[in-house]
Amino acid sequence: MKEERLPKPELDLYLKSLRDSLVEHARLHPQIQLFGLPVEEWAGPGYAIGALFDPYVLTAPLKPSTVYLEWPDTELPGISWIEKRVSQKEKISFQASARRSPEFLLPMLWGGVEYHRFEATSDWQIQATVAECPALAVRAGAALFAFNPLKVIHRYLNMADPKTTRDLTDLLVKAVLGASGIDQELDDDDLRRDFHALGVSSLLLGQMHKAAGQSWDAEKMRRICERLPSPMCRETAIGRGKFSAACFCALRIRASGWCRFRSISW
Hints:
Mean pLDDT is 81; it is low at 255-266. By secondary structure, the chain is an alpha+beta fold. The protein has one domain (8-261). The two termini are 21 Å apart. The protein is globular and about 45 Å long. 41% of the residues lie in helices and 18% in strands. The chain has eight helices and nine strands. A hairpin with a 2-residue loop joins strand 7 and strand 8 (133-139). The longest helix is centred in the C-terminal third of the chain and has 25 residues, at 237-261.
């Protein structure tokens, strides 16, 4: 049986509403510019928004900076480009904390993911490597990826391995914090994943609202999340759990109005 393809009008509606919701959610931290959000990668972009909802990001004194998910069109000071390659299952590694150093492979699935070999001067800090080359470099005001981490997430989603999306979202968090000069160890508390899921869910509901011609106030969700005490690591697990539950409750209440309004089939 031939697989049915999504009709073009519905695909166009999906991509437009996703793009609009991404733009709105990317403004939640006006200090942070995300360069190269790949809307064509379907599920991957949601994890960039999930990283912006991370408790360490929500409570950090962020500074104006740009996170380059895609290789920039212009030269960056201190960065010397060498060449572009297509993935051959090169090893990616970084240190999330003293107890956790994730390692995974740059996927070859669906055409693979291209990456850039480059060298950086000493004012850049290397936060991750791919095949012993820089994979993520940060300095005050910028974070530069050798490959687009959202495309890597997209390739890995069919493997249903939650550790991969956890680790790659943490790499995004390290990029956002590192561009503001913050070298933060990321704890292994699973409640942090609830906040990542909250960001992904807010993006999806924003997209559904826009597809139905309704408004979704992403800024209100951020204000709710910003009530999180800082720093998070000093709070009890019970307190964090109750706060996360309250955020999802607010999300459910706000979404219920849309559900009563209409349904959209994609």
